[in-house]
Write a structure and sequence with these properties.
The structure holds two protein chains of two kinds. Chain A has 15 helices and three strands. In chain A, helix 11 (249-264) packs across helix 13, helix 13 runs antiparallel to helix 14 and helix 13 packs parallel to helix 15 (369-388). In chain A, strand 2 and strand 3 form a beta hairpin. Chain A is globular and about 55 Å long. Chain A has helices at residues 2-15, 17-23, 26-49, 55-74, 84-96, 125-142, 151-170, 174-190, 195-223, 231-239, 249-264, 275-278, 290-323, 327-351, 369-388; strands at 104-107, 110-115, 122-123. Chain A is mainly alpha-helical. Chain A has a three-stranded antiparallel beta sheet with strand order 1-2-3, with no helix packed on it. The longest helix of chain A is centred in the last third of the chain and has 34 residues, at 290-323. Chain A has one domain (30-44, 53-193, 246-385). Chain B is an alpha+beta fold. Chain B folds into three domains: 3-84; 100-216 and 261-294, Penicillin-binding protein 2a (Domain 2); 298-350 and 381-553 and 571-666, 3-Layer(aba) Sandwich (Beta-lactamase), CATH 3.40.710.10. Chain B is built from 27 helices and 23 strands. In chain B, the strands form seven sheets. In chain B, strands 2, 3, 4, 5, 10, 18 and 19 form a seven-stranded mixed beta sheet that branches. In chain B, strands 12-11-23-22-21 form a five-stranded antiparallel beta sheet, with helices on both faces. In chain B, helix 16 crosses helix 18, helix 16 (388-397) packs across helix 19 and helix 17 (435-441) runs parallel beside helix 24. The chains are: A mainly alpha, B alpha+beta. Chains A and B meet through helix 8, helix 11, helix 13 and helix 14 of A and helix 1, helix 2, helix 3 and helix 4 of B.
């Protein structure tokens, strides 16, 4: 079926180049292809020294992702605008699926995985939940027609975001929760609230987080057990403030990551010469710390190339959002922008000591098929939105 | 970082910024307005009205700016890390992946003056393994069985980090060839175990000269702590010891540690995050320590040790059972020690690879003979009659007993009153004796009178002690060996202090104390080396050279001497009284040839004339301590030989054979006269 569709696209492309440009946003497509190629190169580099980083598995993931992107591109998502409740329910089911007996799959002591029955594939449902949440929030935000005049409505919107965010955090993955939160927040901000409200919310959040951190240590010492934030989460949040003083595991990880990035220099150490990622000093070098590996091997130059691809992808997507006629699709597109931006900021930021350490994959680059499939789907959705512009008219 | 790079980077950042702004601005060029009527799905019509395009554009501007800020922050941080601080992180990365593994350097050898090895190095095979092996209990147990070691001992050795965590750890050193062969043949059963070559101390002559060379051992915690406390300047010039290093712990090994110790080699290895060695990064080869040449002549050394043995055998014939003794042969013209023997001996090889606590306890048992004690420099004894030449010199120098005076010996001396009568060793009495014949026959009565005269001397009541000290008695000789004892020349101040608990009357220096030390008894304590050095001075007319065992240090490359010991004058004892020294010389010369036919028989067969003096120390409740000191040739002295046997009986019986054996070795003239318990002097 996929082949059949592809051949149709080919026919389409050859017959009408102008039409192709109408249906496919070329800059974003180029950025996506470049990122996939670059990511493959990085994972191939990692696979030389890291046994778990299987290059072929990554290629399979890219292939499946491409098919999924194609399918998404061919689909029309505007129908989802009216399915707010269904989206929320599905979102929650997906988020809590690792707790469903028969689905849950625990490997290496990690939670948050499911094993799909019959096929036997393992999958991180939170990756899918990110996209469902984006549609959910977009369907909510679109109801206000681009202008929210009442604080109550704004608060309601924020409250709705708290549901998937809370679910993602409770399901055990703070990093993914933050991605959900950030993309949702972007959608809310673009839905037309007054700027002052947004600023107040940010101020409130900062205050609440500080209070939580303070309260956590107080409560922990008072009750004598780990409540609120888990200790390792606390460590991860605080370690980036001064990585060299911390001898704990998170401090070690961050220090090793920063050494890897810093020692890469301008042109990097080159493939096969990277001691930090190659000799195992850099933990999770093919997943959470993939940017550190990339920076060590390809240096500042390589990092800039990566950032340029992401800039092309994200700014291109913002443009697609801007040109979309449907408020719902526009907001969904903004959600995807928020997701990519935050994942880039968090993944790169934690490698270089800008952000607390959380386990988030770098879209299109990190090893792992769940992320690859869903990010490719997001790309497909963006292209679908581009394709559907003007249709509503 | 050159300007070209900055241009490239600035260009890239500019391109990123342009892409972003172009993509965004393109949106403005369109006639985009947000039309509520057409722009949203049916539900959106429930909204409260139209949104102005400008407002929406404002939000998009904000979003673009926000995303741009993220990129800017990342690039700024990357710039500071990869461009500005790259060297810092590079260094950290280098530290991460390299470890320094040290390779032990062989110690210098210890040679005798002719270049023959006293202490050598030999290659030994050790079984080594990395620390991870400890986790494999099956292999460790198997290994323990093969080596015949307790499982726990093997495990402890593997886990012991003193050699450095990344270095292979020694499981067993000096392993038998057959065991090594078995392990190598069945290496598949011993994964991670390998054979390493080491150098160990070896002693080709066994225990010979053990007290001179000493022994080695693992550096002690106290030594490491002492090193920590040294100033940086001192440390910079000396060897930096690490836990586990082998250092000299006694004798020459200890005293000349800085010459003998080599410089550790350093191997830089690459390691991965788990500490596994993945490759070599560079190596500084180990430098062997300097070989050193001693003044010891192994031929003379053997003679010293055999002489002691002979002396003991002779003593046994006369009913004594000596087990301990000392014998030293010095060159009185420069202080070189040609032979230095102390009995009993110990085997320095038991310290190689660590001495067992059983052996250590045995060597240090208070009930035993303390074989580790070097009795030549560390044993303290009454000098007995060997001191009489110096007593005579004191009498003449201070005029309390001149060469013209004489005493009548009846065998019982009552110079201090009948109640305080003292025996001469010859209870039948010598008759009239002066200083010269008093030395010859070792007549105690002459020296009792001399001591009494000193005691009652107004001007120099302690002139006798001064004379002893003038010849260096009661003071360290300064030999280049550790743990030299000081000895003691007692006087009234010493007694006052030493006998604090006694009543004032008792602790007062009395005539009896004086007459005692005049014949080398009582509270006087000397080492055999002190007496030998004093006799060197006597033979040389007052000049004493500091005794030493180091001749030279051989250059590390093995060509020539890097350092040669310059003989140092210890002291010059001036005797101003004319003819006084001649009295002493005639005394010690006639003692050999005239006092007793039995003694003379052992020396007339030598090609040179000898002078000497015997001595027999009396210790309450013990058999007598026998001394004999001689120098030769009489007219142009070169060698001094001193022997002392604890509980060996008369000196001229038990100690004389030792001295004669050494003289025989010096002049290639073995003694052909039989040793019998003769009627010789004490």
């Amino acid at each position: 079926m996929a082949l059949d569709s592809l051949s149709r696209v080919n026919k389409h492309m050859s017959s009408d180049r102008g039409g192709f440009r109408q249906k496919v946003n070329v800059p974003v497509l180029v950025a996506w292809l470049c990122l996939l190629a670059y990511g493959s190169l990085v994972i191939w580099t990692a696979s030389l020294t890291i046994a778990e980083a299987s290059f072929t598995r990554q290629l399979v993931g890219i292939g499946l992702g491409a098919i999924l992107a194609f399918l998404c591109w061919r689909s029309d998502f505007s129908g989802l605008a009216g399915m707010t409740t269904i989206l929320l329910v599905v979102d929650l089911i997906v988020l809590f699926s690792p707790y469903i007996p028969g689905l849950s799959y625990n490997a290496k002591g990690m939670t948050g995985w499911i094993k799909i029955p019959l096929i036997g594939l393992t999958f991180q449902p939170v990756e899918l939940a990110k996209i469902i949440t984006i549609f959910f929030m977009a369907s909510l935000g679109a109801q206000y027609n681009g202008r929210i005049d009442s604080v109550r409505e704004y608060a309601k919107l924020c409250g709705m975001l708290a549901i998937p965010f809370g679910a993602a955090v409770v399901a055990g993955d703070l990093g993914s929760g933050l991605v959900v939160f950030f993309s949702g927040a972007c959608i809310i901000m673009m839905s037309g609230p007054k700027k002052e409200w947004g600023l107040c919310t940010i101020a409130l959040l900062v205050g609440a987080v500080s209070l939580l951190l303070a309260l956590d240590s107080v409560l922990d010492s008072m009750l004598g057990k780990d409540v609120l934030l888990k200790q390792y989460q606390m460590n991860r949040l605080l370690v980036f403030i001064n990585p060299e003083s911390d001898t704990s595991q998170s401090g070690y990880n961050l220090l090793q990551s920063m050494i890897a990035v810093g020692s890469g220099g301008f042109f990097g150490k080159g493939i096969g010469n990277a001691s930090q990622s190659g000799a195992g000093f850099l933990p999770e070098a093919h997943t959470d710390f993939i940017f550190a590996l990339l920076s060590e091997v390809f240096g500042f130059a390589g990092a800039l190339v990566l950032l340029a691809f992401f800039a092309l992808l994200i700014f291109g997507t913002i443009r697609i959002a801007h040109q979309s006629d449907s408020l719902f699709l526009q907001l969904a597109c903004i959600g995807i922008v928020g997701m990519w931006t935050f994942q880039l900021l968090e993944e790169v930021g934690m490698c270089i000591g800008l952000m607390p350490i959380t386990g988030i994959p770098l879209p299109f680059i990190s090893f792992g098929s769940s992320s690859m499939l869903m990010q490719c789907a997001a790309f497909g959705i963006v292209q679908s939105i581009w394709r559907s512009r003007g249709k509503a008219r | 970082m050159d300007a070209q790079l900055i241009v490239i980077i600035a260009g890239v950042i500019l391109v990123v910024a342009i892409i972003g702004s172009l993509l965004f601005l393109k949106g403005y060029s369109g006639k985009f307005t947000f039309d509520t009527a057409n722009g949203t799905r049916p539900r959106a019509t429930e909204g409260e009205g139209s949104t102005s395009g400008t407002k929406s554009n404002g939000r998009f501007k904000l979003l673009t700016a926000g995303v741009g800020a993220v990129f800017a922050a990342i690039i700024a941080k990357l710039w500071s890390m990869q461009m500005v601080s790259a060297d810092h992180y590079d260094k950290l990365a280098e530290q991460n992946q390299t470890r320094t593994v040290t390779t032990p350097a062989p110690r210098g050898r210890i040679l005798d003056r002719n270049g023959e090895a006293i202490v050598d190095n030999r290659a030994s095979l050790a079984l080594v393994a990395y620390r991870d092996l400890a986790e494999n209990t099956v292999v460790v147990r198997h290994l323990a069985n093969v080596l015949g070691m307790p499982y726990m001992a093997v495990l402890r050795n593997i886990q012991d980090n003193t050699e450095g965590a990344q270095s292979p750890h020694t499981i067993a050193s000096d392993v038998r060839r057959s065991t090594i062969a078995y392990v190598v043949e069945h290496i598949d059963q011993f994964p991670g175990v390998s054979v390493a070559e080491r150098t160990e101390r070896s002693y080709p002559n066994g225990t010979l000269a053990c007290h001179v060379v000493g022994y080695t051992g693992t550096v002690t915690q106290e030594q490491l702590d002492a090193q920590e406390n040294l100033s940086d300047e001192v440390r910079a010039g000396s060897i930096d010891y690490q836990s586990g290093d082998i250092v000299g712990q006694a004798g020459v090994e200890y005293y000349y540690e800085s010459l003998l110790q080599g410089i550790r080699g350093e191997q830089t290895v690459k390691v991965d995050a788990d500490g596994n060695v993945t490759g070599q990064a560079g190596a500084v080869p180990a430098k062997a320590g300097s070989d050193i040449k001693l003044t010891i002549d192994l031929k003379i050394q053997r003679a010293c040790e055999e002489g002691l043995k002979l002396g003991m055998e002779v003593a046994e014939q006369t009913g004594y059972e000596p087990t301990c003794g000392a014998c030293v042969c010095m060159d009185c013209t420069n202080g070189e020690i040609l032979g230095l023997a102390s009995a009993p001996t110990f085997d320095p090889s038991v310290f190689v690879g660590g001495v067992s606590s059983d052996t250590w306890n045995e060597l240090n048992d208070d009930e035993g003979d303390h074989p580790l004690l070097n009795r030549v420099i560390g044993g303290l004894y009454m000098s007995a009659s060997t001191i009489k030449p110096f007593t005579s010199l004191a009498g003449m120098e201070y005029g309390v007993y001149t060469a013209d005076m004489s005493s009548n010996c009846t065998g019982w001396w009552t110079g201090l009153g009948e109640a305080w009568g003292k025996k001469c060793w010859l209870e039948t009495g010598h008759g009239t004796r002066n200083l010269e014949t008093g030395i010859r026959d070792s007549c105690d009565v002459v020296f009792y009178d001399l001591g009494k005269n000193f005691f009652y001397s107004e001007k120099n009541p302690e002139g006798l002690q001064e004379m002893y000290r003038r010849w260096g008695l009661g003071a360290k000789t300064g030999i280049d060996l550790p743990s030299e004892a000081e000895g003691r020349v007692p006087d009234s101040a010493w007694k006052e202090e030493y006998r604090k608990d006694w009543s004032a009357d008792q602790r007062a220096w009395n005539a009896g104390d004086m007459t005692n030390i005049a014949i080398g008894q009582g509270d006087i304590l000397v080492t055999p080396l002190q007496m030998a050095t004093a006799y060197c001075g006597l033979a040389m007319g007052g000049v004493e050279w500091t005794p030493h065992v180091l001749l030279s240090a051989v250059a590390r490359d093995g060509e020539g001497d890097a350092y040669t010991y310059e003989p140092k004058k210890r002291l010059t004892a001036e005797i101003s009284t004319a003819g006084a020294l001649d009295v002493a010389y005639r005394g010690v010369h006639s003692m050999i040839y005239e006092e007793s036919a039995v003694t003379a028989a052992h020396f007339t067969n030598l090609p040179v004339q000898v002078a000497g003096k015997s001595g027999t120390g009396e210790k309450d409740g013990e058999d007598p301590y026998g001394w004999f000191i001689a120098y030769a040739p009489f007219d142009d002295p070169k060698y001094v030989v001193c022997a002392m046997l604890e509980r060996g009986g008369f000196g001229s019986t038990c100690a004389m054979p030792a001295v004669r054996t050494v003289l025989g070795a010096l002049y290639d003239s073995p003694d052909d006269a039989a040793y019998t318990a003769g009627d010789s002097t004490r």
